[in-house]
Amino acid sequence: MPPVEIYSQTPGVATQPPPPPTVTPPSPKKGIPKLAFIIPAILVLLVVLFLVGRSLFSKVGGGETTITWWGLWEEEATVAPLIAEYQAAHPNVKITYQKQSPQDYRERLTNALAKGTGPDIFRFHNSWLPMFREELDSIPASVMSAGEFAQTFYPVATSDLTSGSGLAGIPLMYDGLTLYLNEEIFESAGKAPPATWDDLRQLAISLTTKDEQGTITQAGVALGRTENVDHWQEILALMMLQNGVSMGNPTGKLAEDALNFFTVFSSVDGVWDATLPPSTIAFSSGKVAMYFGPSWRAFEIRQQNPNLRFKTVGLPQLPKSSQGEPDISYATYWVEGVWARSKSRQAAWEFLKFLTSQESLEKMYQNAAQLRLFGEPYPRSDMASLLSSDPTLGALLAQAPNAESWYLASRTFDGPTGINSQIAKYFEDAINAVNAGTAAGKALVTTAEGVKQVLSQYGLSRE
After folding, report:
1. pLDDT of residue 321
2. Topology, domain 59-169+334-378
3. 70, 288, 335, 368: which could form a disulfide with 169 (CB 3.0–4.6 Å)?
4. Which parts pass through the membrane (predicted)?
5. Where are the beta strands (DSSP E) in 208-298?
6. 178-331+391-457, superfamily in CATH?
7. DSSP type of residue 66
8. CA–CA dist 98, 107 (Å, integer)
């Protein structure tokens, strides 16, 4: 038996207990304390990054898309309520409307776009598409398909705004040539409005009065010259289109007949001459029985003579070979386009789509009518009935479905190098030449060559 070690104790002396056995503590679970701190930190960081990123994204354009809109004729008060309504529904979109002066507008717009500082949305004339083709964006199909566009607006808009495979603008208004009548003169003479150009010619002769010296004291119609007939460009274009003239090559008997007929009112019938004031002023003064102009001329007429009683009627037509043959009218109107290089293109188109709704167009019309005689005529064909009884707009919109247009329009402010200004100069020379005794065929030879040169500048065929 092995010896047993017995701890001896000395009496009166405390004995030290033996040290406790060494116990190795269990290893802690790795990572638990670190994750407990890291995970909340990561979550906080992600939240901060999200908030900062959203703020930055908003400033860059995702949350606050900015749209600059250059307008021409409408006051800010007319469009501001519509902008406010849209921004309320789209709080991340900010729209600034800037009314531009028509003077040198086309040149200023061209320069701004060339410098890269152009507006996101801008108004342009329906005849300007060749001059801005490269700067105009096409309507995205997601905003408005070609089919929807054709069903919404008058056919002339589709014809004028088709560029390549897309549509390059959205009209918020329509306008065109219409025939104004002095109601008092017609009632006093017991005459009815003319239906054909021959009717108009006979009426003009019978309604013209002259004094003993042969001076015209009351003109039957303002036609036949260029220096004092406002909108002679549209009138001549209307006559030629109705007569089947190819405007890009205005030669041959059809073109000659139209040119001669335009000048006959001055050169043969003597119902208008160069001594008279501009036709708009003459009509406003009550001294002209019939006058051609777009609807907006009514503002000027009413301002110059608040007591003048006038209305518009359908444009005269050529005799029809068949009863179903449509009338032809002439359109000249303005369109909203979107800059192809705008960073806000999609938002700009969506805003314009909002403005084309019936509700928005009615609101704009009512807003404008508080500032002037009436608002801009509706561009939607399904809204024509709303203005059918208007003494100025009813006849205009009744003819809109059959309207045509071309690059011959007055007061588009496209400048001396603009397509309208250049083409108008050649037709002006032809009218003046015929009034001076030159044969129409000879005068139109020069016109046709000049028109060909202008069209070629913009890559257009002799349509």
Report:
1. 82
2. D-Maltodextrin-Binding Protein; domain 2 (3.40.190)
3. 335
4. 35-52
5. 209-210, 216-221, 288-293
6. Periplasmic binding protein-like II (3.40.190.10)
7. E
8. 17
